[in-house]
Structure formats: structure tokens, C-alpha cells
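Contributing: when you submit paired examples, paste them exactly as shown. First protein:
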Amino acid sequence: MNLKKQKKIVKKKGESPFFIPFKIMNLQNKMILLVCFTLLFGKVKSNELIVQISLKTCVNCNAGLFMLSKLSPRTNLVLKYNKSEELVIKELLKENEFYGSYKIEYINSQDVSSNCYYKIGSDTIEKFELKNLANKIEIVNFLEKKVELNKQIKLENLPTISERNAIYCTDSILVICDYVLHKCVIIKNYNSVPEYIELKSDTNLLYSLIKKFKLEEDIYKKYLLEIKMYGGHKISFRSSFIYKGSLYIAGNFLFPLYNEKSQIGITNFNFILQYNLKNFKLENALQLTPDKIIFFDKDYSEDATSFFFINHDTLYTQMFKEGNYDNNDKILGKWILDKSNVSYSFEKTIFPLPNYFPSKKIGEKVYGTELRCSNNVGSYNNFPFVFHLNSLQNYDLSNSFLRQNYISNFLDDASNWKMNFYPPRISNSLISGFYQKKDGCFLYHYNVQEDKIISNSKFATIENNKFPSYHFVGDDTFLEIKLYENSIFMYSFR
């Protein structure tokens, strides 16, 4: 195109300079520019707190104005009031030490009350009276934070790990129990220079445990061929927990034991291994006694495939029972450390079965969903029942998930067994966490006081049927772990 024709295009009256080069581009370049323009200037959902103020209400109804100064600077604040009351309202804001920025919208009607509306995009997710802003400030401020990727950590030279693993992590150490390869992989300083330590099952360790637990070695050797046929001749590392300078690992191996009829049966022998967290030397091994707990007409067993946690010399484990669950059943076992520091003795089961708690029948045994622990919080992988590990205060989120149609049916929908809930972040008024379904990974925020999910958004898509796992390692930091890519992604709410 010659220069003369270009000048004619520029001289067109009222035409934006942006569209001048656009006219002379080929189709491919036009499409690229449109995509870039959309990414740069396209609509993004923004949060907005609308505070409606009326002087016609009682004095206490506007007491929440004091909390405006506690809002995050990121908050898009809109004040709505009658123009005739503007001078008094502005004076009230000064009295309440609020000097932040805000937009003003005037209300024509005199018949209004003092309320707040918190919106994400066009959706109003919270509506409450202005006097209750103090109770909502934590929720509003946390939702103002954006999820940002801090760093991607590449785990170079990561030892081989199967898909059947259980991950436990803190802000500096990652513990992966692989119960197929009979080992535990520990990653120290994963967020800087990763250092790998492998704890493996070996014959010496197994026979030392047989001796410590006063099991009959001759009987073990007699049935060793049968034990090998079941793959139980090695220690299986099932799950882990870190407490007061020690790494605890739940393990088991197969052993021939006598039943009530004096008959030999090969069964799991469960125990806890205690390692020093500084040098990873084995310090102690603790037996769980009895291995099977029978009381009344209930028949419970400790679930060795699940996570556990320790608090004040008390061990808590997932339990399962033979037969059908009923409403009086409990889902968590409590074990007390004996004075000789040799074993944990079963005391009782706690936590009544929550509403809609699913069970899965395998043969003649009915299993509840498995316990998971992270960041001092426990949860169940197929069900949104969460609790503090220290106080044991618990929350059942199932009603909210069902009522708001995020889940169809915990009891009957077989596809929910492919669902995973991860231990969330818990505060006084807000629970934030991740769960997975076949169509993606979702981040949810749950209002504790009102028993409702106030936000539920897709965080990631599932690719090639590969599922990452999510672990909070602080109030505002979480990890997305993709062992199949040897990668860890560290995110923060900021």
C-alpha cells in the first residue's frame, strides 16, 4: 500500500488511531491482535462491598461504620445513601476514623435500612446488616486476596514413587509414604534445595520389630511362603505425621496370628514407627493394642490405609467396622500411650457419623472414607467433614454442598468415589479449601456461621486423568503437588 493511501486513512475524522494499522493487517495478524486486546482489556470479575447507610434507623444499626477502617485497601467500596443525609454521614465517617476511598451512589427512597452487600462480579454472595460488619470483616478481607503463584519447584532426581502414595507436608518438609514400593521418601527443604532421604523396608527391621513386639518368629518363618504369596513379607509404610520433633510413620506387615478359635490366620499387624526428625534414626516402635476392637455388637478395626495424628500422647486413627454403618457409629479411634512407652491402647471411638456420610462395601467389610491431615486440620477424602487436630472442633459441610447443588448425592452417586476433599484452611468464620471432581479442581469458601458456601470456582482442569493434590502449609500458603510431573507449585493468598 502506498504512502498516499495511508494518509487518507489517517485523515478520516473521528477514527481511533488503534484501528489505522488494523485495517492494513492480514487476517492472521488481526486475529492475534484481537486475542491480545481481549486478554488485556477483557472483563474480569471484581469484588465490591456496597454499604447502604440510613439515618432513619437506630444509632446502633450504623455502629458497623467503625469497621470500615479495617477493610483491606483492595476493597472496592461503594457507599449508598440519601443525598439529603450526606453531610451528616460524612461527619460520621470521620468520627469513626474512616478516611479511605469509596464511590458514592445516591438513593432516592427514604425507606431504606443500613445493610451491606458483598458482590463478586454480578453475584451477591453476602448480604447482612451494617451492624454485623465486624463479624464479616474477616471473610470480606480474605476474599479480597488473590491467589498468586509464588514459585514452581522442580524436584530433580526424585526417587521413583508409585501412584499409591500418601503425602504429608509442612512448610519445609515433604513426606511421601509409598505402600506399593514399601518405602518412605522424605524431601527436606523442598522449597529451596531439595534433599532426598529414603526409608526402606528391609529384613533386619522386620525381624527386629517381631522381636520387640514379642511375636513368635518360628511361626512367622513357618508361614513365610504364604505371607509372600500375599506380598506381606515387607513392611508397608502407609502414612505419616510430624509431632514435636519426631516423624511418625504408620506401618504394617502380615503375620500369622491365632483367632478366638485358636486357628491361625494371616492378618495385618499394625504399628507406629517413631523417627528423629533431625537425623531420621529410628527411636521407637509402638504397637496398637488390641489390633481389633470388639464391644457391644460393634466390630471395629483400625484402618491402616488411612492417615492418623498425635496430640498430647494420644493417637487418633481412622476406624472401619464390619457390617453396615448406622447413625450411632463413630468414625475416629482414640488411643492412649501406655506408661512404658511401648504401645498405644485403644480407648474409644469418637465423632458420631455425620449426615450423608458415605460408606463403601468391599466384600463383607464396610469402609468409611479415609482420613487426611495437613496444616493442623483433618478431613475425609470423599466427604466434607473437617476438624481441628488440637481442639477436635468439627464442621460438617455436607448439607451446604448438597443444598447448593455442588454435589449430587454422597450416599448413592458412585462417581463421588472419584471425588477428593483436601484438608482446608480453617478460621473463626471462614473455611477455604479444595476438592476434585472428574471435571476439575475447585476452590471453595464456606461461611461457618451461616452454614453456606459463598464461593465455588474452578481452580484447575484435569488433564489425562492426572490428579494433583492440595496441601495448606500456612494460613495463606498452599501447595499444588504434581508428582507425575516432579513438580510443586507454591501459591499464596495475597
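Second protein:
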Amino acid sequence: MRRTLMATLLALVVVACSNDDPVQPQNQASERPVIRDQYFYYYQDSPIYFDTAIDRLAIKFHEGISEERIDRFLDARGWKVYGFEPSHEIWMVLVENALDVVKRVSWPNPSLEYIGPVLESGLCDGLQLHMTPTNEISVRGDVTDAEVAEHLKGAGVIRTREDRDRTILEMPWDATRTIDLANWLAVHPATEYATPNFIQQFCR
């Protein structure tokens, strides 16, 4: 199967038409995803900029969709899989124009729970770094601060969990909203740092 053939353990830093009715799980964004041509996040108080890869997208299928249906979906659109991250069940695919694809995709979508950008940096030792945002933010600081807690509620945070000295915030699957929230938290006086969690992949 395609999933087995393409699955690779990527480092985690911390539509064939269907007659199925559209589904919207709890962690699917209700609004059509929007992707920008450039993003940034804070590292050691400085913004790090990444361009959106024009020929790549990250997608996540609704839970329970068969591999046969996934294959039909991908083949019908000519999207070529180049990576799969199993812990979040994120597929990385090659497309003709990522920005146009996201604008055209129907939403809510009967097959896709999520569609979002793959970010890229310059070459490092001949390798291109691709960063795929997840729906998680890693925060060190006081997330119970009144202003922070109110902002998190308004941003739609689904759940939080503690991981050693950090708090992990889980968002609906929407890369732009997740990165924007991480950046807001990163400059808030109640936090020491905040960064989106990414899937990293180096490609030649």
C-alpha cells in the first residue's frame, strides 16, 4: 500500500470523488484554510522566516478512510506522495501550485480533514529544509495568566497537556491560525517562549 511504501519516520521538532457526506471532526477548522506565501515564528526572540513551498502541501484525511479511497483521491488529482508522518497521519504531497489548490478545494471536504502549507528554507549543506506545521504549540510560561487564558479560549484551543517544563496546546488543524497564536504567545510577557511544533524533512 502507498502508506506503507511512503511512510518514513520524520523528525518531529518540538478531492476520486466520493458520495460520502462531509464530516467535520472536532479538530477540523470550520473555515476554509488560508495559506500565505511566507510565514515566520520566533526563535530566541528573533523571527525566523520561511517561504511557502509552491509545489508542496500537507494533507490529513478523515479518520477511517480506506487506503483504496486515499489512493483514488490522490491519483484523480495527480498529487504525488513524497512523505508520510505517522504520529499525526500527515501526508506530504507534490502539487502544481499549492496556493491555487487550497483556494479551489471544497470545504468542509468529504475526504480531507486538513490541507496546509509546507514551509522551506534555504539550502544547508546542499539540502533543502522543509518544515510542515502540525496543530500543536509548545509553550513555556504561565498559560493560566488571565489575558493568555482568554486569548487561548478565543483562538479555539482544543486541549492542553503538560510535557516536562512545557505546555503543549492542541489547536484545530489550521496552520496559519496555529502559527499566528504561537507568535502572539512568544511576545507575551507571561511566557518565556512559544513555538509551533513542526515536522522536519531534508530533501535534495
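If you have annotations for the second protein, write them as plain sentences, like these:
Confidence is low (pLDDT under 50) at residues 4-26.
The helical segments are 2-6, 67-77, 98-104, 146-155, 175-186.
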